[in-house]
Design brief:
mainly alpha, two-stranded antiparallel ribbon, 40% helix
C-alpha cells in the first residue's frame, strides 16, 4: 500500500453532482459518468489496486468507497472518497476475499489517501506485509486479508525478480551503489502504469539504498 494523491474529480462527475443535489449516490450515477470515474481513478492510481497494489484494468476493477456508503451517504460521490480496487476474489471462497471485497463496510486505520500511510509498513522477504502499528496490522490481516497465501507468493516473486534484475544489471549485491539503486527507484516510480505490487518494489529498493553509504 502506498499514498494515493487525490486530484480533481472528472468533469462528468462534477457536473452530475452540481445538477443532482438531491440524488447523490453511486447507484444513481449514469453509466457514462461511472465509466469516466473508473478511467480517472485508474489513471490517478497508475493502474494498481489501492490496497494490494496488483495491476487492475477498467474491465476487472471495483470502485471503492473508503468511507462506506451505508454510513456516509454524504460522501457517496465525493472524489476524495473514491478509489480503484481489484475484484478482491469476489465470487470465490470467502477466506480468499481481499481488499474492498473483504473490507465491506469496515472502518480502517490504514488510509491510502494519507501521505504517511506507508510509514509503519514493512515487507518481509517471504512476501508478508506487516506494520509496527497493531491496529494497522489488524487491518492488513483481518479487514483486507492482504497476507492471503496467493498475495504473499506474488510479492515474494516480485522480491526475487527484483534481486535477479539488479544482479544482472548491476552485478553482485556488494557492488550495488547508492546512486545506481536510486536510479532504479526513479525508474520504478516513473512507470505508467505502475508495476505489479509497486509499493513492495519501492520498499525493498529504499531498504537497499539505506544499506549503502555511497
Amino acid at each position: 500500500m502506498r499514498h494515493i494523491a487525490k486530484g480533481t474529480a472528472p468533469p462528468a462527475l462534477l457536473a452530475y453532482v452540481k445538477t443532482n443535489s438531491l440524488n447523490q449516490n453511486w447507484d444513481s450515477l449514469p453509466k457514462e459518468e461511472k465509466d469516466e470515474v473508473r478511467g480517472a481513478l485508474l489513471a490517478e492510481q497508475r493502474g494498481i489496486c489501492c490496497y494490494c497494489m496488483q495491476r487492475i484494468t477498467e474491465q476487472q476493477m471495483k470502485v471503492e468507497h473508503y468511507l462506506a456508503q451505508s454510513r456516509h451517504r454524504e460522501a457517496s460521490l465525493a472524489w476524495s472518497n473514491l478509489l480503484a480496487a481489484c475484484s478482491g476474489g469476489e465470487g470465490g471462497p470467502v477466506d480468499q476475499h481481499t481488499c474492498d471485497t473483504k473490507k465491506g463496510n469496515a472502518s480502517l486505520r490504514l488510509d491510502p489517501r494519507n501521505a504517511n500511510v506507508a510509514r509503519n509498513l514493512h515487507y518481509l522477504v517471504d512476501g508478508t506485509i506487516t506494520s509496527d502499528d497493531e491496529p494497522e496490522k489488524f487491518d492488513l490481516n483481518e479487514h483486507l486479508n492482504l497476507n492471503v497465501e496467493r498475495l504473499k507468493e506474488n510479492r515474494k516473486r516480485v522480491y526475487d525478480a527484483l534481486k535477479d534484475y539488479l544482479r544482472k544489471q548491476l552485478g553482485s549485491n556488494r557492488s550495488w551503489t547508492k546512486h545506481q539503486l536510486e536510479k532504479e527507484l526513479e525508474k520504478v516510480r516513473s512507470k505508467r502504469p505502475f508495476n505489479n505490487f509497486m509499493g513492495a518494489q519501492e520498499y525493498w529498493l529504499l531498504k537497499f539504498i539505506r544499506g549503502r553509504s555511497a
